[in-house]
Automatic annotation (TrEMBL):
Its EC number is 3.4.21.53. InterPro entries: Lon_proteolytic, Lon_Prtase, Ribosomal_Su5_D2-typ_SF, Ribsml_uS5_D2-typ_fold_subgr. The active site is at 153, 198. It comes from the Bacteria. Belongs to the peptidase S16 family. Residues 148-246 form the Lon proteolytic domain. GO terms for biological process: proteolysis. Keywords: Hydrolase, Protease, Serine protease. It catalyses: Hydrolysis of proteins in presence of ATP. It is an enzyme of class 3 (hydrolase). This is endopeptidase La. GO terms for molecular function: peptidase activity.
Length: 255
């Protein structure tokens, strides 16, 4: 009997300690959820996302969506009680805070870094697209306008938006295509973070296909919503070819 009472007391004590810990000790994690999408062929606050000088954009239809994720504010403290439900929710993710926000930096510095990455990504996207089209970057100027989006992962979709407007082929076929991936001046597509949640945002906003860096396939196909075609790409050229094949019934890469 004494042992049973002792075990009961220990159990109650553990529950109390866990309860206090759940609400009193902040954890080095952040909560990430599917974010907004933006159409690179559309407008942002009434201004075209892609503005072109020195060439005449072609009419477009369909959408080319860049996809984002949304993380808890870097200054917000999260506790075990805040994160517990997210561990069991496919539409949320709990990740180490340092994987989203640089350690030792203020919120202001983090925002500045994300903005810098976005600007550089836009520059790379424009150069890659103009090179793909055989246009002189000194003669054709591209300005990209999109508020409240940071980081480099929209590069691929920016490039495709430019190619769609200045090229001779319609890339969407009137459908909604989403995607993510960094891009460099040579058109090489690089990895990004949060691809699992980005597939959910794409499906939520009506996309029928999702372009992604080839090395992200394994992560994406584990949780991608049904009805969303995953199309892995390694280069801008490959992405353009894949979209044309997707329209015409040709061979399309698949995860």
């Amino acid at each position: 009997m004494a042992r049973s009472k002792r075990n009961l007391v220990l159990s109650v004590l553990l529950v109390v300690i866990l309860g206090v810990f759940s609400f009193a000790v902040p954890l080095p994690y952040t909560l990430v959820i599917p974010g907004d999408t933006a159409d690179t062929l559309g407008t942002d606050n009434g201004v075209p996302v892609i503005q072109i000088e020195g060439a005449t954009p072609q009419p477009t239809d369909g959408k080319l969506l860049l996809v984002t994720i949304r993380a808890t504010d870097p200054d917000e403290k999260l506790y075990l009680s805040d994160l517990f439900d997210a561990w069991f929710d496919d539409d949320e993710a709990v990740v180490p805070k340092k994987s989203v926000y640089a350690e030792g930096k203020s919120k202001k510095e983090i925002i500045a870094d994300n903005t810098k990455d976005m600007v550089e990504s836009q520059d790379h996207a424009a150069i890659a697209a103009l090179n793909h089209l055989g246009l002189d970057p000194n003669q054709v100027k591209v300005k990209l306008n999109l508020a409240d989006v940071g980081g480099p992962s929209a590069g691929l979709m920016f490039s495709l938006g430019i190619v769609d407007q200045l090229g001779t082929q319609n890339l969407t076929g009137g459908r909604i295509i989403a995607g993510t991936g960094t891009i460099d001046d040579a058109g090489k597509v690089g990895p990004i973070g949060g691809v699992e949640l980005k597939t959910k945002a794409a499906k939520r906003d009506g996309a029928v296909a999702f372009l992604l860096p080839k090395q992200e396939c394994d992560k994406a196909k584990e949780v991608a919503p049904g009805g969303l075609r995953l199309i892995p790409v390694e280069t801008l050229n490959g992405a353009v070819d894949a979209l044309i094949a997707f329209q015409t019934g040709g061979k399309v890469p698949s995860c």
